[in-house]
Amino acid sequence: MQNDLPVILAVDDTRENLNILLSLLAEYDILVALDGKKALEIIDREKIDLILLDISMPEMDGYEICRLLKATERTKDIPVIFLTAKDDEESIELAYDVGGVDFITKPFKPRELLARVKIQIDFRNMVRKLEYMASYDTMTGIYNRRKFFEQGQILFSAHPRDLYAIVIDIDNFKTVNDTYGHPVGDIVIRKIARTISTNLPKNTVLGRLGGEEFAVIMKGTSIEATRDLAEHLRKTISKLKIHHDSGCLEHITISNGVSKICPNDTLDTLLNRADEALYEAKETGRNKVCF
Ligand code: GH3
Ligand code: MG
Ligand code: MG
Ligand code: MG
């Protein structure tokens, strides 16, 4: 997770208002737009943490912009503070109805605006942190089980005919723990996760399903090509030299089970077949790929 300067987008059809905000919010990375169209272009391109949004603007007003953002998956969680000359109850109510998180009337008190911006940025950072914790495995930095299934499901919906799974399990890992201790076992898991991750094509979903078991969901071309990829992972890992405090481990191996999507499959049944293939790989000697 990065901790870059938060990016704030200020949208107002009056240049002078934007200039005031630019100098007031100098501690943030601040972008400005003079109309809705320009604002949407910037939001499309940049990762925005907070939007300060005027309401009365020609062509597209602030409410309309906010409604659009809230209806779009990628932008629905960006907090919007309305910053407007309006102060009637109806306008305030509508601002919250369309998804605004705060409402500030112009002319505003500078320190109050700064404080209210800071609250939203802090809240956004906290949400990001929680999202990260709910999605990534702390030890390896790859997807955890929950996020793996969520992302796998997205891939499944996009490519219901060309989906492939690889289930990966480290061989005799208990022996590694028993011989070298749990911390060295952790180093091995991390190294193997990183090796798998860097050897996968783009748009592949990789997750740690548990202990020393990983899974891959990918759009592929054939079972043979997927088997070749699994074989490449197996070979690469068997050649690793894994350094730890008191030495270097070699010849750590994995077993892989590969499956291709069949009609009526769900993500679960696709993965179950890869699991059965993995079981066969274990039963017939380990350090191999079965499908
Ligand atoms: P197999 O070849 O049949 O897979 O044998 P194995 O020893 O790898 O399989 P088994 O499932 O018996 O053992 C897996 C071990 O992984 C047991 C568990 O203590 C260990 N383990 C699970 N999670 C972690 C972890 O986060 N860190 C470490 N160091 N060990 C873990
Ligand atoms: Mg205006
Ligand atoms: Mg194992
Ligand atoms: Mg296991």
From TrEMBL:
<dbReference type="GO" id="GO:1902201">
    <property type="term" value="P:negative regulation of bacterial-type flagellum-dependent cell motility"/>
</dbReference>
<dbReference type="Pfam" id="PF00072">
    <property type="entry name" value="Response_reg"/>
</dbReference>
<dbReference type="InterPro" id="IPR001789">
    <property type="entry name" value="Sig_transdc_resp-reg_receiver"/>
</dbReference>
<dbReference type="GO" id="GO:0000160">
    <property type="term" value="P:phosphorelay signal transduction system"/>
</dbReference>
<dbReference type="GO" id="GO:0052621">
    <property type="term" value="F:diguanylate cyclase activity"/>
</dbReference>
<feature type="domain" description="Response regulatory">
    <location>
        <begin position="7"/>
        <end position="121"/>
    </location>
</feature>
<dbReference type="GO" id="GO:0005886">
    <property type="term" value="C:plasma membrane"/>
</dbReference>
<keyword id="KW-0597">Phosphoprotein</keyword>
<dbReference type="GO" id="GO:0043709">
    <property type="term" value="P:cell adhesion involved in single-species biofilm formation"/>
</dbReference>
<protein>
    <recommendedName>
        <fullName>diguanylate cyclase</fullName>
        <ecNumber>2.7.7.65</ecNumber>
    </recommendedName>
</protein>
<dbReference type="Pfam" id="PF00990">
    <property type="entry name" value="GGDEF"/>
</dbReference>
<dbReference type="InterPro" id="IPR000160">
    <property type="entry name" value="GGDEF_dom"/>
</dbReference>
<feature type="modified residue" description="4-aspartylphosphate">
    <location>
        <position position="54"/>
    </location>
</feature>
<dbReference type="InterPro" id="IPR050469">
    <property type="entry name" value="Diguanylate_Cyclase"/>
</dbReference>
<feature type="domain" description="GGDEF">
    <location>
        <begin position="161"/>
        <end position="291"/>
    </location>
</feature>
